[in-house]
Amino acid sequence: MMPLHLLFNRTTMKKILLLLTILLAGTSAVSAAESASDIIARAAGRFSSAPSVSVYYSMTTDNGTATGEMLFSGQRFHISAPQLLTWYDGTTQWTYLPQENEVSISEPTADELQQVNPFAVISTFQRGYNARLVKSDKTSKTVALTAQSKTAEIQSATITLTTSTMLPSRIDLTMKSGQKMSITITSISVGKSLNINAFRFPKARYPKAEIVDLR
Fold first, then answer.
1. Which residues of 37-53 are buried (b: 16+ CB within 10 A; e: fewer)?
2. Under a CB-based contact definition with an 8 Å cutoff, are residues 38 and 158 in contact?
3. What is the reported pTM?
4. Mean pLDDT in runs of 10 for the chain (215 residues)?
5. C-alpha 39: how far from chain center
6. What's the distance, Cα to Cα, between the start and end of the chain in Å?
């Protein structure tokens, strides 16, 4: 498998991982009468009400495939991928770069969280995209989203959900650059409430990591 850093640069990877979580938020049961916009609108409430959500995924582009894991609880999150690991406890964010053995600590503003906070980005996604339901049958539902601005990082997205669970099974993205990627959800589950330490950098696990405190 090709290393993740060869597929995407660091900034793009952060955007992709956390824009992915926007789409994963659409896990609520949806009635036939609901429109695609209704599905997206309900995502924030459904996602935040879960004690925790665990997601495993595989991401594919023309350059290869990479895998990762995400863990969420309300506004808190932890993302684990070959290129970087990120923890956010609701106030402080830690970003660890394995190749550099360096962890950056910050207290992101609301605007900065648009790049890394999956819950915060949901509202932006709702405002900046037109949604339409393109398929609905006994096995799956597909929602297409199109950016209202030509400068949006993601120009279009197609989300496929399993009808019986209304959980995402596949997400296809087209970026502003023209790059296309497909994300397959290999596992997604709702879990129990987690201790806040699950969303804080485990310093004891990386005793030799260089600390860069940006607060």
1. bebbbbbbebbeebebb
2. no
3. 0.69
4. 50 62 48 64 66 87 84 88 90 95 91 59 66 83 86 83 75 86 86 94 95 93
5. 17
6. 36
Q: Which residues of 65-96 are buried (b: 16+ CB within 10 A; e: fewer)?
A: ebebebbbbbbbbbbbbbbbbbbbbeeebbbb
Determine the Cα–Cα distance for residues 77 and 89; give it in Å rounded to an integer. Answer: 7
d(CA 81, CA 148): 30
Contacts of 76 (CB under 8 A, 6+ apart): 88, 89, 90, 196, 198, 199
Dist. CA 196–CA 89, nearest whole Å: 7
Neighbouring residues of 142: CB distance < 8 A, sequence distance ≥ 6: 133, 134, 135, 136, 158, 159, 160, 161
Q: Do the strands 210-213 and 102-106 form a parallel or antiparallel pair, or are they unpaired?
A: parallel
3-state secondary structure (DSSP) of residue 47: helix
To 5 degrees, how large is the angle CA 159–CA 199–CA 124? 40
- Measured distance CA(88)–CA(166) in Å, rounded: 27
**Integer CA distances (angstroms), 207 to 81, 128, 169, in order:** 20, 42, 38
